[in-house]
Write a structure and sequence with these properties.
Belongs to the thioredoxin family. Pfam families: Thioredoxin (PF00085). This is Thioredoxin domain-containing protein. The radius of gyration is 12 Å and the shape is globular. It is of the alpha+beta class and 90 residues long. It has three helices and four strands.
Length: 90
Amino acid sequence: MNSPPDMPVLVEFHAPFCMTCRKMMARFSKMSKKKRDAIFLSVNVKEHKSVASMYNVKDVPSFVLFRSGSLIAQYKGAISERELLKLIES
């Protein structure tokens, strides 16, 4: 993937058994189609436990924002589309 180094990267951590995660995945997917100046990634914590552990993700859904390779912010729980946008643009 070739993208500007300062492009925000938002990672969504979810689990298949989590109903809130399912709702958030739809919101996250919608946002990823709208917001072309950010990278959106989704991580299933059941399949990728080491990645979740690396970022100290203990609750799902959780969101981790990176910019220029640095962790900028973390958010736990359901989040509105507006709040997601604020998080990305922070």
